[in-house]
Design goal:
Helices cover about 60% and strands about 15% of the residues. It binds ligand C2E and calcium ion (2 copies). The site of one calcium ion has 4 residues, from loops.
């Protein structure tokens, strides 16, 4: 029953209410109908029974009265007319008897029965008296007949009339009584019908009001709740109401609210959090959600080196583990430093991208930041265990200070400054740098410097230095890398690390490349007679790769100097290929088709994939010197270098280690299978007399 009976459902209430109304109306109809048929019955009875009877009783009285008159006429009639008078009297007598008989068959209540019996008795007396009177009339004794009429017939007839009138009276009364009863019952019915109708109307009104209220009020509550949800208030619930249907909508709304709130939380988490490390992301750092916060005084950028090559050689899982580990260590150092009071509470450590992290924090002074840096370095020292082997973490740090020139800087300016600092940190050996105005000034001055480059090329302020490369198998020189030097007339020696990036930005670098190619080819031409096996590698810029005339210029230069193109190498930085891979690859193929050999420079620091490098027509892989620095003491890095070498060999490439400074490093890379070394251990870059001396000391080529 319980599953059928749902008093809280609006539908049920409506059904019940209207059902009740219909029942009441039916009741009224049935009652009225019954009454109408009853009245019809009563009317019929009245017309066919009561009324007839009344008429008969009335006729009885009339006949009884009439028979007296007829008797008088009989007596007084002459003998020859008596037959007609007899007939009249007899007819009246018969009519009286007929009425009495029919009344006896009909009706009657007890009172009428007894009255009728008395009437019958009187009739018998009248019959005797009548016969006696008739006898006297026939005997022509009028005196005796009159006496008999007066003394016997008339009293009998009077007695009959009395009884007949009593019958009549009683009959009238009973009819009136019946009518009064019917009247009363009719009035009762009218009362009932009125009462039921009033009840039904009241019920209908009550039901209408209740139903309307039970729908309208909860609906208004639902509407209000929906508006609150639309405004982002997910805490308020839709209250339960007395209407089940509305309740269900309300519950659905509550469920929806929870889901929306949950999803919004998820969206906020996704928008402001890095899923890999669980740290806040760049957005959270630059534009934190919620109330605006004061920008931090210090911003540190931490960059995990070699992430790409780790991903490529040891797998993305290892790369991810490394990032997670670095995130965890960095965050732990900052939280601990805040707890110990080294820096202010509430530092925000965020992951920006790849292996780059940023931390915004407040600290009393730069000394505290330096102490923090030492702690970070310590934390990063231990290698990370990744699926059975250990990998070293190598991090570069860039720091920016907001309060250098008094006014606090917005966080995105701080971030840009820290990026500049990180950039120079990557070039500096210590892997750590503060952003300084001087750096910015240097940037600007470098840009102005670049405009002097044109003059430099024309006025022979540039020099080509050569750094020899040695085979690790034979120990013999295999060639050299050409490195540009600039003797600025007023600034003195300018490092290529300082001006090359800016020359690349402005496009002047192609002048430098052409100039260096010219020098290299001239040198090769001079070396060729005694040492045709030696090659010279010239560094190419990304700009050159995108220059459609480059190949033609190289060919012209080679032809001009009559050099075997096999002796020329061109070094490209892998990241340089990514700007416009299609054009770059086409240029590389054209160069290779000319017979020129190509090398990938600074391998392991860029972002291109090994699978992609495999498609390039290169013949040498130069492992960046950051991998070689201290490799003998870093088993994790050794693994990495070994894999890189194996992969290079797998692709048929010669593998060169850059920046070899110690015997231990050399011994290690030799053991790992490296082919060629370049570095201060073998030789510093040479120029002029020193270069000449080196060349002359070379053993003659074994050909
Ligand atoms: P790079 O191509 O990787 O050149 C190697 C750099 O490593 C040179 O610095 C060289 O002096 C330095 N190096 C060699 N052995 C060692 C060592 O054992 N230890 C250490 N710590 N360093 C060593 P350099 O000459 O200052 O050149 C810096 C960068 O400037 C080059 O890096 C190259 O990217 C760019 N560059 C140099 N010359 C040219 C050029 O003619 N054209 C272009 N486009 N870029 C050039
Ligand atoms: Ca190079
Ligand atoms: Ca290099």
């Amino acid at each position: 029953m319980s599953h059928l009976w749902h008093p809280r459902r609006i539908g049920w209430r409506l059904a019940m209410g209207f059902g009740l109304l219909v029942v009441l109306m039916l009741l009224v109809l049935v009652k009225a109908n019954l009454q109408i048929s009853h009245i019809t019955g009563v009317t019929q009875r009245f017309a066919t029974g009561d009324m007839q009877r009344l008429l008969r009783v009335q006729a009885l009285s009339l006949q009884t009265e009439g028979v007296g008159g007829a008797m008088v006429r009989l007596m007084n009639a002459p003998r020859e007319n008596r037959v007609a008078e007899y007939t009249d009297v007899d007819a009246r007598n018969r009519r009286i008897d007929g009425i009495i008989e029919s009344l006896g068959n009909d009706l009657l209540d007890e009172v009428q029965q007894t009255t009728l019996k008395r009437l019958v008795a009187c009739r018998a007396i009248y019959a005797d008296a009548f016969l006696a009177t008739v006898d006297e009339i026939e005997a022509n004794d009028l005196k005796a007949a009159t006496r008999a009429l007066n003394e016997q017939v008339n009293p009998a007839l009077k007695a009959m009339l009395v009884e007949s009138n009593a019958l009549l009276q009683h009959e009238r009364e009973s009819i009136e009584e019946g009518l009064a009863q019917e009247q009363a019952s009719f009035e009762r019915l009218a009362f009932w019908i009125t009462a039921i109708s009033v009840l039904a109307v009241a019920l209908a009104v009550w039901l209408g009001v209740r139903t309307t209220r039970s729908v309208v009020v909860p609906l208004a509550q639902l509407e209000a709740a929906a508006r609150r949800i639309a405004k982002g208030d997910y805490t308020s619930r839709v209250p339960t109401t007395s209407a089940e249907e509305v309740d269900r909508v309300g519950q659905a709304l509550n469920t929806m609210t929870d889901a929306v709130a949950q999803r919004e939380q998820q969206i906020v988490r996704l928008a402001y959090h890095d899923p890999l490390t669980g740290l806040p992301n760049r957005t959270a750092l630059l534009t934190p959600p919620g109330a605006p916060v004061a920008p931090p005084r210090y911003l540190a950028l931490l960059d995990l080196a070699r992430l790409k090559v780790i991903n490529e050689t040891l797998g993305y899982g290892t790369g991810d583990t490394l990032i997670q580990e670095m995130a965890q260590r960095t965050d732990a150092v900052f939280q601990a430093a805040a707890q110990q009071g080294l820096i202010a509470p509430g530092p925000v450590v965020a992951r920006l991208s790849g292996g780059t992290f940023a931390a915004g924090f407040n600290a009393p002074d730069r000394g505290a930041v330096l102490a923090l840096h030492a702690l970070l370095d310590q934390a990063m020292a231990a290698p990370v265990a990744c699926s059975g082997h250990s990998v070293d973490i190598s991090v570069a740090y860039g720091f920016a200070d907001s309060a250098v020139n008094g006014a606090a800087l917005p966080v995105n300016t701080l971030m840009r400054n820290a990026e500049v600092a990180l950039h120079s940190a990557k070039r500096a050996a210590k892997g750590f740098a503060w952003y300084s105005e001087a750096q910015e000034a240097a940037r600007v001055s470098h840009l102005s410097l670049v405009s002097d480059l044109r003059v430099a090329v024309a006025n022979s302020q540039l020099q080509m230095w050569l750094q020899p490369k040695f085979s690790l198998k034979t120990g013999l020189a295999v060639g050299a890398e050409a490195l540009v030097r600039w003797q600025h007339p007023t600034r003195g020696f300018v490092s290529p690390a300082e001006f090359v990036p800016f020359a690349e930005q402005t496009g002047y670098i192609s002048m430098v490349t052409t100039w260096m190619l010219e020098q290299a080819l001239r040198t090769l031409a001079a070396w060729a007679p005694s040492h045709p096996e030696l090659s010279i590698a010239v560094n190419m810029s990304t700009r050159d790769l995108l220059d459609p005339t480059f190949c033609q210029r190289v060919r012209t230069l080679i032809d001009t100097h009559g050099v075997n193109p096999q002796c020329l190498r061109l070094e490209i930085v892998e990241s340089g290929l990514m700007d416009d891979p299609q054009t770059s690859v086409a240029v590389l193929h054209a160069l290779r088709d000319m017979g020129i050999k190509l090398s990938i420079d600074d391998f392991g620091t860029g972002y291109s994939s090994l699978a992609y490098l495999q498609k390039l027509p290169v013949s040498e892989l130069k492992i960046d010197r950051s991998f070689i620095d201290g490799v003998d003491g870093l088993p994790g890095t050794q693994r990495l270098v070994k894999t890189m070498i194996e992969m290079g060999h797998g692709m048929g490439l010669m593998v060169t280690a850059e920046g070899v400074e110690t015997e231990a490093e050399k011994e290690t890379i030799t053991r790992l299978g490296c082919d060629v070394m370049q570095g201060y251990l073998g030789s510093r870059p040479l120029h002029g007399a020193a270069l000449q001396a080196w060349f002359e000391a070379l053993k003659p080529a074994v050909s």
